[in-house]
Request: fold
Amino acid sequence: MKFWKISLITVLSALFVYLFLKRIDFHEIKKIWLAIPLLYPLLFLLLALPQYYVRATRWGVLLSPFKRKIAFSSLLNFTLIGFMVSYLLPGRLGEVARPVMLAEKEKIKKSQAIATIINERLFDLLVVLVMLLFYLALGVGTPSPILFKLKTLALLLLPVILMIFFVITMANTKKFLPRTERLIHILAKALPARFREKIAAFAIHFIKALNLNLGWAGILKICCLSLLHWGIILFSYWLLMQGFSGVSLDLPATIPFLAVIFMAAAIPTPGMAGSLDLASKYALTGLFGVDAKTAVAFTIFFHFLLLLMPIALGLLAFWHEGLNFKIVANLSKRDELSTMR
Reply:
């Protein structure tokens, strides 16, 4: 990653952290932490395991059109490695690192592996939006400006996601695929000659791979696994909240909090530093009327636990796969598009 991008992300992260921590009385925060029953954080950490198992299983289904038999241990290891890298380094590098490293191990096209991550994220966004709209349709939430903004955002994003799936499908039909390939080759002419063919080939493979050649049964399986994945995450968030006396919510009320955290996680700060913290505090105080010190105490504790398991397990997976951080550093330095197939 270029120096200016790292600098921009670092400054942005530092600003978010400053805004989150200003006027914080850590003596009061410590008292809140000491009152948390140990059971709740332990259960929160344990629920991280099924989350990543379900995510790895779903990734295997998305990869199945390109290679049917991929060892589950590889899917799980590289899923954990991807999250670990994204949490430790700026720029969401893990989103590229995990498909590229898995593709190299399993001898599949990197463009195809990367396309599965795009589809994975589209399904994640689709499921979170559907959960949020279903919650809002029930009309059980306390009206607030934040809830209104979430509803507006969800209503805007849902048709966009559905349109993306439609465009991907249309671009891969027998009628339009030749036009898609011609357009890619025309656009590639703007690139240096030595990269032109390789990048055009990558783009064509990538667009073809975005098309979900899974059949209706496969797509239904992806949807069910996505709902299960986010259902586990929702339950884990709600469970941790039960350990804080100033946060009293029922399970469905946690859905808008989940949506806010999901959107904050898209900001490419290392370990979601600052972005997640501000979003969590904003959601707790604005959605549920939680007092500021309890919101800050929960957020810091929640953020720490959220990173702990994937980083620890990711480091173990890194060791198990015989990898080192030099490989990840090379991914961030070299132009992957010039070498991918």
Summary: The chain has a mean pLDDT of 87. The chain has one domain: 27-172+211-336. The longest helix spans residues 110-138. Residues 64 and 214 are 8 Å apart (CA to CA).
